[in-house]
Amino acid sequence: MFETLPKPRPDGIIALMQAYAADPRMGKIDLGVGVYRDAAGRTPVMQAVKQAEAHIIETQNSKSYLSLAGDSAFLEVMERLLLGGAVPSGRVAAVGTPGGTAAVRQICELIRLARPDAVIWVSAQTWPNHAPLIAAAGLEMRQYRYLEAESGALDRAGLFADLGQAGAGDVVLLHGCCHNPTGVDLAEGDWAELAGMLERAGAVPFIDMAYQGLGEGLDADAGGLRHLAARLPEILVAASCSKNFGLYRDRVGLAMTITPEARRDIMAANLAGLNRKSFAFPPDHGGRVVSTILNDPALRHNWQAELEAMRRRVVQNRADLARALRAALGTDRFGFIAAQRGMFSLLPLPGTQIERLRADHGIYMLGDGRVNMAGLNDQTVAVLAEAIAKTV
Ligand SMILES: Cc1ncc(COP(=O)(O)O)c(C=O)c1O
Q1: Which atom of ligand 1 has the smallest separation from the CA of 252?
Q2: 98 C-alpha to center of ligand 1: Å?
Q3: Ligand 1 center to residue 101 CA distance, Å?
Q4: pTM score, two decimals?
Q5: DSSP class of residue 326?
Q6: 191 C-beta closer than 6 A to ligand 1
Q7: Could you list the pLDDT tens digit for every one of the 392 residues in the chain?
Q8: Ligand 1 mean position to 238 CA, how many Å?
Q9: Which of 48, 69, 127, 255 is catalytic?
Q10: Phi then psi dihedrals of residue 275, to 5 deg
Q11: Nearest to 267 by CA among 129, 140, 106, 86
């Protein structure tokens, strides 16, 4: 029966990970895969996570099923972390999901249930998995302009011109912070202008929040989401704890809707129903780690300090790389790297140069020039800058 099965197109990130692993060179540098790394190149388990896990092992006395929405304590702490009280809880419905990926998928499924012909607007540069997830849910996708590639700044005029065409019932997917892959986020004024535009059009924002705390800080990174939530009647949210809690493989995320109170229960029931039809119960362990940390003042303090150190390291790597490139190339062409936020930037390099960086220098970045800023350290910043200068 499976002879008709097509060969799937290889996933660029997974293929790059495999090529890197197979490269025998000592000095190879992995700037591809999107995980945080410390100065020694490790992706450590956070201290607060270790302590919360020890506490859970000590005290947990059942692993029986919970509800389809998952652990209510996890959903409550995440509502506070994301929304900071910007809307009354009576407007919020949420369910746990296996990571932010499944949260995006479940929100797309929810959109399809409500409106199978909905159009979802996605930034021209985006996380490579957005389009496949949207297509898998059978939704129509349109792109809006986002990045001015050479200046590395927001294409504000393009974005507002394109989203000006979004109509009633359209959905606009936005990265809450640390836009992947550009590192370019909306400023406060942009969020306000966008809120007005969506409000007038009757379009619904869908916020993908995968890096809260790694851009400008925990509250600042949620500023856009909170502004929209306080102003618009309906918001969709997919959130991930993979990066800010370092819980990648535990698969911790949630799908959330913010609606008028009268519609909250039906949203919750539909989200639970979607979970039932895909994986039934969301994974519990990672979410329990998150609620244990956020409900314990000492653990929370410890987690926030470690997250802030991670954030600062990325900001420092950005400043160091911008400076090293200025010195190596004698131009400020890459100055935007220091102004951008989050783990990623797109280096506007031709494909042939990206190939040579890999072949001649063992430096791995994605084919579109996406670089993981957390993958650099004091030594490799200079190596990368010099290799870019040599391959121009
Ligand atoms: C923009 C964005 N959304 C969602 C995710 C999903 O992350 P996960 O499924 O690992 O929680 C990622 C991960 O890289 C991401 O960059």
Answers
A1: 11
A2: 11
A3: 6
A4: 0.96
A5: H
A6: no
A7: 999 999 988 788 888 989 999 999 999 999 998 899 999 999 999 999 999 999 999 999 999 999 999 999 999 999 999 999 999 999 999 999 999 999 999 999 999 999 999 999 999 999 999 999 999 999 999 999 999 988 999 999 999 999 999 999 999 999 999 999 999 999 999 999 999 999 999 999 999 999 999 999 999 999 999 999 999 999 999 999 999 999 999 999 999 999 999 999 999 999 999 999 999 999 999 999 999 999 999 999 999 999 999 999 999 999 999 999 999 999 999 999 999 999 999 999 999 999 999 999 999 999 999 999 999 999 999 999 999 999 98
A8: 9
A9: 127
A10: -60, -45
A11: 106
Residue tagged active-site, from 94, 210, 239, 328: 210
Set out the domains of the chain in order of their start, with CATH numbers.
Answer: 10-45+304-391 (3.90.1150.10), 65-295 (3.40.640.10)
Q: How far apart are the first and last CA of the chain?
A: 51
Q: Is the CB of 253 under 6 A from ligand 1?
A: yes
121 labelled catalytic = no
Going by C-alpha positions, the residue among 170, 234, 209, 167 that lies closest to residue 342 is: 209
**Active site residue: 243, 250, 255, 387, which one?**
243
- Nearest Cα neighbor of 248 from 202, 210, 219 is 210
- Distance CA(303)–CA(120), nearest Å, equals 35
